[in-house]
Every structure is written in C-alpha cells, then in structure tokens.
Amino acid sequence: MTLAKELESLAVDIAREAGELARVRRTEGVAIAATKTALADIVTEADREVERLIRARLADARTDDGFLGEETGAERGQSDVTWVVDPIDGTVNYAYGIPAYGVSIAAVIGEPTPGEWETVAGAVYAPASGEMFRAARGEGAWLGDQPLTVNADVSAAGALLATGFGYDPTTHAGDLARVGRVMPMARDIRRGGAASLDFAWVASGRLDGYFERGLAPWDHAAGSLLVTEAGGSFAFVRDDSERSRHLIVAATPVIFERLVDAALADET
Ligand code: LIP
C-alpha cells in the first residue's frame, strides 16, 4: 500500500468515528462554547471534543506527524506529514441543527503552510447523510466505492455554483460584489455553509464550481484534493495584504478559468 493510501485509510477511519461523535452530540443538544474572530464565528463544545478525539487517534497511529487544527492550533512534527483538521466544518449549520456539516481531515507533506504544502490524502465525512468522500493523490476521488468525476460539460443555462461569506461583516460588501461579477455565468448560486461539502459536491458533479474568499486552511485542505483527483481544477490565490483573505476557486475545467477571472476581477 502506498503512503497516500495508508494515510487516506487512516483519515477515513478517524473521520467516521469523529463524525459519529459529532452526530450524537448534536442529538443531545449543542452548547456554544465561545466566539472567535467575530460574533458570528462560533465554536461549540462538540467542535472541541471532536478535535480532541481526532488528535488523540492521529497521535496514537502516527506519533511523529505534525498537526494543524481549527480549535487546538498547530504543532510541528518530526515527520514530513502534517494533519490539517476541521473537526466540524459548517459549525453554524451544526449549531442551528441544519444537517450540512462535515469532518475534514487532510494529510499534507512539506512545509505546513497553505499554498506551499502538497495534500496527499483526505477524507470528508458528512455525518447527517453518512457520505464518506475520500481521495489519495494519484488514486482518484471516491464516494464510498463509487469513483467521482467533475462535470464534463455545463448547461447552456449557466453553471451551478456555490460560494460563502466571511464571519467578519466588513468583508460582506466585497463578497457580494464578487457574486455580482460571477452571476452572469451562473444559472444559480448555492450557499451551503460548509466548504468541505462544497468541494465534495464539485468533485461529485453536484456543483459545477465553488469560490470563496477567506477560508481557513482546514476548510480547503482535504476538499481541494477531492476536486483535483476527480479531474477538477483548484486555485489558491494568495492574498499578501494584511488581511490575508486568500481566494479559492474549484471547478470543472470547462468553466475554471472563466470563474477565476470573474472571481478575481477588481479585487482590492
Ligand atoms: C466555514 C466554512 C464556510 C465559510 C464559513 C466558515 P467553519 O467553516 O465551511 O464555507 O463560508 O465562513 O469558514 O467555521 O464552519 O469551520
């Protein structure tokens, strides 16, 4: 078994266990533990408990690896592998009881810096639907045992696209302007609220493309591999301003360049 397949298998097993814990905690009622970067940026006790579980399972299985998690931060390892984890992606959906949230676990190699690392394995588990999306570099993307491919063509009615908005209200004007620039190429826009699932849906052909500015590394580390292993394209457009709100675009190659151009135009 290649290292990528070994890491994928570990990510799948832990994502499933962690996702089931998140699902059970949801049925028991969810408590908001704190707010982070903005009033709208919440963390629940379940986020913290699920990340502790994931971190413990990874440490048991691969002691020398590094870790970068949304809730417990970064720790450099001794190996070339770093795990990039969002324990509950779509936290606001989760807190409101909207069944659209995912456990996102990615294994990256190289410098543990977004845009510099190479994702070699990833799993995105959707506990509400029981869907396990997974990929290992060079081995394709899968939903269970079904191979995934992005859409080979896009309707003459336009592309079905997804996007998202930052937690910081001061970023909303720019986000809405970006939607306005992209709308002419779209048949419709979806705002699912969980980036990892948006990526998984592009990889599955349920969406033609997805764009968002301001995602955290753990939001896109696993999902971007799903898309590229499903034949899609992914761009991480680094924003070197002090705001560091990087733009990501993921789409079928049929519309990728056009979507990047529209999403990037007039960005300040
Ligand atoms: C969320 C993303 C979503 C984005 C939100 C937030 P979280 O991640 O999945 O796409 O629009 O602003 O970043 O906070 O639920 O892990």
From TrEMBL:
Keywords: Hydrolase, Magnesium, Metal-binding. SUPFAM superfamilies: Carbohydrate phosphatase. It catalyses: a myo-inositol phosphate + H2O = myo-inositol + phosphate. Pfam families: Inositol_P. PROSITE patterns: IMP_1 (PS00629), IMP_2 (PS00630). InterPro entries: IMPase, Inositol_monoP_metal-BS, Inositol_monophosphatase-like, Inositol_monophosphatase_CS. Its cofactor is Mg(2+). Transmembrane segments: none annotated. Its EC number is 3.1.3.25. CDD domains: IMPase. Belongs to the inositol monophosphatase superfamily. This is Inositol-1-monophosphatase. It comes from Microbacterium gallinarum.
